[in-house]
Design goal:
By secondary structure, the protein is α/β, with parallel strands linked by helices. The protein contains 6 helices and 9 strands.
Amino acid sequence: MPADTTPTPLPSTYGGMSLPEPPEAPQDARSYWEPIWQQGRRYRTICEAEAKALRLQLGEGRGRPALDIGCGEGELTRRLAQFGYRTTGIDCAPTAVTKARRNQPDLDVRRFDFDADDLTRLPSPAFAVVACRLVYRWVADKPAFLSRVRHLLVPGGIFWVATSVHDPAQGTPRPWDITAGDAELLATGWSQVRVSKIDPSFHCYSLRP
């Protein structure tokens, strides 16, 4: 297995604001994210190259269900709906959900902690697309998270992950980069793995069971 390149704890910034260390347990997710959203968290927006990769890999929704985990203000949720998916966005932070509902009033956005809440509360027992954007790095228990995703995917469905990765040319990993071990875990056990490299430090994974 590749060496673990997790950085030592240090003050970090993301989107122009400081971030505390990520939660150590799934049940800590809301207490971690809600203060960050209250402070005015900002995501990297979806650029043209990322939008093109998203459409190319996911295709037309044709009314099939899609789930956006950690939807934040709902940008990816909206994109999936525009592709024709019957999309639900979920986030554990109440402030994020409020912002998403204000920004995307026609979309189904719900307060839901994917790591801890009962999956039967979701609007569909299975989804053609499960997506998470700038979320995977911060998941406390990644094997359990991936297991829950697999449980929700229909046969032939797609798990879409957009994430910052460590670019060795940049030197020390940034706190929001996934490690080589995280990337290996993410890509293991799927029948098809496609990676769209938007830039050297931002990759999109299209994973099929």
